[in-house]
Amino acid sequence: MDSFFLAKLFSGRTVGKGWEPLLVSVVVLADFCLCLSVSSQLSPGHVRKLAQTRKSRDRRDFKEDENPEEKARRHKELELKPLYKELLYTITHKMGNPSSTEVFTDSQLHQYIKEVNTLTSHITPPPPVYCLMATVKEAKGILGKDVSGFSDPYCLLTILEDEEESRTRRSRAKPCKSVVKDAVSDDKIYQTDIKKQTLNPIWNQTFVLEFGDIAGDSFHLEMWDKDEEVSLTQKLEEIKTNFNSLRRMIKEAKKEKGTDDFLGKVVLKLQDLHCTEDNWYNLEPRTETYPDRGQCHLNLKFIHKGRDGTLSAGRNAYINYCGILQQFVQAYISKQQSSAPWKGALCGEAQTLLELYATQNDLSPFLQDLAKWVAYSKLYQSLEVDSSVLFQQLTSVEYHWHQQELPYQQKQELGDSLHGFLQYGLCLVAKYRDIFPPSPSELNILAIHKCAFFQNPGPDLQDSGTQEWFSIKKGLHQPMTKDLSEIVDALSRLITEVQEDIKHNKDVWNRVFVSAVQVDVFTVIYKKFDSLLAKEVRETLSLIEGQMEQALANSLFPVYKSLKAIHKDKAFLQKRGLLELTNFQEGFREALPYWLNQAFSTTQDRVERAVQVDKLQPLQSGAVPIKHSSSAVDLVACIQPICQLWEQLSWPDPEEAFMLMVKLTEDVCKIVVNYCHILKERVRVLSENSDHGSAINMLCVVVNDLEHLRSVLTRLPTQLNWAGLRDRTQNVIGESQFHNTLPSQLQQAQSVLGREIRSALDTLGKKLNTDIETHVRSMSTRRRIPSKSTEDAAAPLMRYLEQELHYMNENLVQENFNSLLTPLWNNSVKILYQVATQHSQQEGLMVFCQRLLYTLQCLEQCFHAEGNGLPLNALHSDEYKVLKAHLTHNSLSSRQLVEKFLERKIWEQNVYSGEKYGAVTLLTSYRRSDNKLRVEVLNAVNLLPMDSNGFSDPFVQLCLEPNHIFPEIEPRCTQIKNCDLNPLFDEAFEFMVSLDQCQAAGACLVVTVLDHDTLRTDDFEGEAFLALKGLPGVPGGREGDGLSAQPDAVPAQIRLPLMHPKPNEDSILRLLESRKGEREAQAFVKKRRQREKQSQEGIQL
């Protein structure tokens, strides 16, 4: 409600302008009380708990010394009886239908007012003059009858009896559009103003039309276009400017001069109308020409003229309406069964009577709303009335204030009403905690009125109310004795009440005060409580000083927590300042060790009880299994209060906070280590009378419990916010001191857990290692070698591992399962290597190594588990690589070993750098056309001098290896070049070999350079290995694929450095050498050993 409204409201008061700010406060106060009540969802008992009702003004008609019966009789005679007569008169002479959908008969209305007034009376006053107040507001879309396309409309209004209209029609010689003009005399016809040149005229003119009988009368309105005589010059000018009006001009010429044009009519039967009508009505034609003639907006109301003034002793209709309204509301509330506040509802009979009375007496909506405000504001101070009802009426009064002027007497009454409500409302605001209790429902901020200014009650009102509230609560919680524990408990209860009140002020009430009256009530209340609580806490702690004990410290902890929560709310203060509770923690320093001891001992006892009842069974199986037992979960829950203690304390001093964190971390680590010990004892007790399988299962659960606990310890720094503590203490605690204290405590506890987990896993792995070794050694017995295939021999071990690992995977968490797999894999590799190297019999060694190699491959797949087990880099250890190489070689046949040897030599040739022993140059190619390998020995360079003269007699020997691939190819030699270290041979050789032979594994050309000696064995100059599959013409498709028709490849010149073998270093030769019964292998080994003897590498060694 703005200042203009209020200035206008009291502009006529004799009391002066000084009242205006106070009355602005009344309006906002009503709004404010509504917001409080909406936000608090008032219960019936709260509204009137401390209500101060306004004293009613003294009445001259009542005497204070009258007895109650006489006063009731006089009240009925002077107040109720006149109202009762007015209601009887209203029913008797009612007109129109009420706006409500429910219709009541006269007998029902009579019965209702008898029940309300408890009176019986009959009246025979003269009837009033029945009138219809008709307001012609406007019209739209009417016909344009003039040449210009517009009309000059006016309206004729009257009320006709149905017989008069019929008689008028019969008297006419021919049909005529006019009815109103000819039906009644001119004094009964009312005419509006003429609106020039418009199709949407606006009149807003009101007429009062009298009538005799509502049953047979009808309301008639006719709209006409006023025509006036116009000069010929004007007519011609219109034609010049608008040729479209020519047709209309011709029609005008046919019409009689001075005759008005009919635009439309509205005919309404009075008996079909409501008490008040405000509608748009279609203008009906007299004929079918132009059926769409627009609409007319009418406001119709049935009123009385000449109403008997003796019914209510000369009181005006507004006063009677107020009395009737208050009487109906009281009757409705008294009949309500529910104790909820009244929200403005009335029964249908009451609404009908109020509407009829207001309409018959022509009470404006403004006066009706004003009467409701006056009545409701009085009832609000004595009965259960919802605040939203008051706010609704004030809003309506504000709306109507801008629309019309209020009579002086009603202005005076409104001022008195608002003044009384202000006094009552201020009393409610002072007691807002009891009158408007808060609730969790959302505050209806939208209900707050926007005001230009407001004289708020100021902080003193809230300060005194808070002091009074605190004194009452302190008295309620006063200790009965002088026992220190009881005194502390009483203080704790009082602070809890204050904490709750501060929360409500912050979350609920402050939003209302700030929005409605611009008062930061939270800051006022908080500072007052800060002063009051600081005094109470100081007095209580002074009594305890030097007498601290565990029970007393336990009682002080809730006090500390509540004060801490209250102190945090200072962040919401609008104006900061020095608060008395700023360093309240200092008073609790003596109780701090007792709180820590209580948290530790309580947690320790809970952990011990949790282990005692633990059956060491997984908590949950199924799709989402929980593999640890109940005690692990309980331990986490037990440790959580210690972490919460750190948050609850929030100790402000950084150095003391660090020492406090050290103590809390130490306590947690002690509890964890003690849990390991008592859990091991619990396993020992439960395993005494259980089978091996149950014992293994319990051991798995224990390992999972410890792993779960280790993960909890890992999260401890985050839970205790070590990072935040480090930031706080960086100026008082050094970096090294911080990290050498807290993390070291945690690492010690984690190392204990790690040792216990490894010990348990070793216990689980012992039997598995033994069984694996048994299965592996069973495959090495002689009797099993010829009887079973490799797959069948390894099947028992794989079935056993699959079963055991599946069991462990189901019963161990992933971290522990992986920890078990690593030593189990390493031990399995160790067992396989021992068995493989301890096999003394050469007979069947290859088959046995094939089995072990297959077993190793199966074990690798099993432990890797397609990426779900151990990673490949963990599986491929150095021991694994040695074992795999050993088994791979021993699993090969002699020919495969020879091929492996030659492939290795080819690789050495390719990576060999330098020409320490010289080099030989060849020109090679393979012709597919005739399956011939052509080798042209060009020269040799830098050969070693093998003779005493410092020269050599070199020649080159060409040999195709391996022998089992080229069994029919004889070695070829060049001519001997005497006394030459850089001989030029320039000799060509051709070998008849197939393409498949050249592409076979290990196929190579062995080039050996020898020094010819006549009496002794030729000396060894060096050798080189050339892979055949890389020669021109060899790579590509195989024989029979059609490539033989292609042109022969161009020969390639190749320079091969000569090499000398290293004696006794090749494992393949040693393995071939061990196979004594194979001639081909022994021949190959003998040849290679001979080369090693001739090698210069052996001499250099």
From TrEMBL:
The keyword Metal-binding does not apply. Residues 49-74, 1073-1101 are annotated as: Disordered. It is found in: Cytoplasm; Late endosome; Recycling endosome. Residues 113-260, 916-1044 form the C2 domain. Residues 58-74 have a biased composition (Basic and acidic residues). One of its GO terms (cellular component) is recycling endosome. Residues 557-679 form the MHD1 domain. Its main location: cytoplasm. InterPro entries: C2_dom, C2_domain_sf, MUN_dom, Munc13_1, Munc13_dom-2, UNC-13_domain. SMART domains: C2 (SM00239). Keywords: Cytoplasm, Endosome, Exocytosis. GO terms for biological process: exocytosis. Transmembrane segments: none annotated. Residues 791-901 form the MHD2 domain. It comes from the Eukaryota. Belongs to the unc-13 family. This is Unc-13 homolog D. It comes from Dicentrarchus labrax (European seabass). The lineage of its organism: Eukaryota, Metazoa, Chordata, Craniata, Vertebrata.
